[in-house]
Amino acid sequence: MPRAPGRMRSGRERPRPAPMGAAFWRFWSVEVATETGLGLAVIALQTMVLLDLGGGATEVGWLSSARFLPYVVLGLVVGAVVEGCGGAR
Model's pTM, two decimal places? Predict the structure, then answer.
Protein backbone atom coordinates (compact mmCIF):
# COMPACT_ATOMS: atom_id res chain seq x y z
CA MET A 1 0.00 0.00 0.00
CA PRO A 2 1.66 3.26 -1.10
CA ARG A 3 2.11 5.96 1.49
CA ALA A 4 1.29 9.60 0.96
CA PRO A 5 4.38 11.80 0.93
CA GLY A 6 5.15 13.40 4.26
CA ARG A 7 3.22 10.84 6.29
CA MET A 8 4.54 8.19 8.64
CA ARG A 9 3.31 4.60 8.65
CA SER A 10 0.76 5.21 11.39
CA GLY A 11 -0.89 7.98 9.39
CA ARG A 12 0.36 10.80 11.58
CA GLU A 13 2.08 13.72 9.90
CA ARG A 14 5.73 14.28 10.54
CA PRO A 15 6.49 17.14 12.89
CA ARG A 16 7.61 20.22 11.05
CA PRO A 17 11.07 21.55 11.86
CA ALA A 18 11.25 24.77 13.82
CA PRO A 19 11.46 27.82 11.56
CA MET A 20 14.86 29.43 11.27
CA GLY A 21 15.15 32.55 13.36
CA ALA A 22 16.25 35.99 12.24
CA ALA A 23 19.71 35.46 13.74
CA PHE A 24 20.31 32.42 11.53
CA TRP A 25 19.33 34.26 8.36
CA ARG A 26 21.51 37.22 9.32
CA PHE A 27 24.45 34.86 9.91
CA TRP A 28 23.78 32.99 6.68
CA SER A 29 23.57 36.15 4.56
CA VAL A 30 26.79 37.54 6.04
CA GLU A 31 28.54 34.22 5.45
CA VAL A 32 27.40 34.13 1.81
CA ALA A 33 28.53 37.73 1.27
CA THR A 34 31.92 37.01 2.86
CA GLU A 35 32.59 33.89 0.81
CA THR A 36 31.49 35.63 -2.38
CA GLY A 37 33.81 38.56 -1.67
CA LEU A 38 36.75 36.27 -0.93
CA GLY A 39 36.18 34.31 -4.12
CA LEU A 40 36.01 37.47 -6.19
CA ALA A 41 39.19 38.79 -4.54
CA VAL A 42 41.07 35.63 -5.47
CA ILE A 43 39.90 35.85 -9.07
CA ALA A 44 40.74 39.57 -9.22
CA LEU A 45 44.23 39.02 -7.82
CA GLN A 46 44.98 36.24 -10.29
CA THR A 47 43.66 38.36 -13.15
CA MET A 48 45.84 41.27 -12.04
CA VAL A 49 48.92 39.03 -12.00
CA LEU A 50 48.14 37.82 -15.52
CA LEU A 51 47.12 41.07 -17.19
CA ASP A 52 48.77 43.94 -15.31
CA LEU A 53 51.96 42.36 -13.98
CA GLY A 54 52.68 40.20 -17.02
CA GLY A 55 52.79 36.95 -15.07
CA GLY A 56 52.01 33.55 -16.46
CA ALA A 57 50.54 30.32 -15.24
CA THR A 58 53.55 29.63 -13.01
CA GLU A 59 53.17 32.92 -11.14
CA VAL A 60 49.44 32.38 -10.70
CA GLY A 61 50.20 28.90 -9.35
CA TRP A 62 52.71 30.32 -6.85
CA LEU A 63 50.18 32.94 -5.82
CA SER A 64 47.48 30.33 -5.31
CA SER A 65 49.74 28.09 -3.27
CA ALA A 66 50.95 31.05 -1.16
CA ARG A 67 47.40 31.48 0.14
CA PHE A 68 47.80 28.26 2.12
CA LEU A 69 51.32 28.94 3.42
CA PRO A 70 50.17 30.48 6.75
CA TYR A 71 48.12 27.38 7.51
CA VAL A 72 51.09 25.11 6.90
CA VAL A 73 53.55 27.20 8.91
CA LEU A 74 51.19 27.89 11.80
CA GLY A 75 50.02 24.29 11.79
CA LEU A 76 53.57 23.04 12.21
CA VAL A 77 54.44 25.59 14.91
CA VAL A 78 51.23 25.15 16.88
CA GLY A 79 51.47 21.37 16.56
CA ALA A 80 55.00 21.41 18.00
CA VAL A 81 53.92 23.68 20.86
CA VAL A 82 50.93 21.50 21.70
CA GLU A 83 53.04 18.35 21.54
CA GLY A 84 55.66 19.93 23.81
CA CYS A 85 53.07 21.10 26.33
CA GLY A 86 51.28 17.76 26.43
CA GLY A 87 50.20 16.63 29.88
CA ALA A 88 50.40 13.18 31.43
CA ARG A 89 49.15 10.48 29.13
Answer: 0.54
